[in-house]
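Batch job 17 of 40 flagged for manual review because the log was empty.
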Amino acid sequence: MRPTVSFATLDQSVDFHNILTPEELAARLKVPKSWIFEKTRSRCLDPIPHYRIGRYVRFNWTRIVEWLATTEEGDAKRPSLS
């Protein structure tokens, strides 16, 4: 289930200067844009935090940084395959 975005809530909790397009996020993370879109799919096990605004996808840089930190911690807890 996709979270709904309330613009009344956004005005108070989101710094609109930190909202990124998929292209901008891919450039900041130095990954292909296709990887960004794959991480927004509903079938993804660890989806990247994002907002869907109609057909557009946007990202809050602050939430991405938090997501990366928790993903890194999760990776450290996983056993090695070797």
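Reviewer: the log was empty due to a logging misconfiguration, but the result itself is present. The first strand starts at residue 19 and ends at 20. Unflagging and moving on to job 18.
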